[in-house]
Amino acid sequence: GGVCHHVTGECACPPGWMGTVCGQPCPEGHYGNNCSQECQCHNGGTCDLATGQCHCSSGYTGERCQDECPIGTFGIQCAEICQCMNGGKCYHISGECLCEPGYTGVHCETRLCAEIVYGLKCDKRCPCHLPNTHRYFRYFCYICV
Question: Which residues form the EGF-like domain (predicted)?
Fold first, then answer.
């Protein structure tokens, strides 16, 4: 891929390549003409050998892969949507859910306690009078302290 100089016969390598016959790609962490520029990608991102543009690893975004995916997204280019429920937190790399106390399941979809109790051991009685509590608001009874 290099251009041979008409007088000296030396190869002028295209960006991303080096060596006397332009047969070697830039070493990891370098890019550009003669591989003279240092890659500035973070969090495991790799840079294009010719341009230096970062290709971010799963869970990261930004020009230099310096930012975690925005809340609610994960994966390559933060293109996946988190499926965590009931206040569960989504891990920005894999989308795995970290459930709030009192919930379990892949997406935190399962309550550990019955409707009339709450707490880490489901040993506290909910003070709400359930027959008079609208179903939507019952959730707040579960998190009484």
Answer: 1-23, 31-66, 74-109
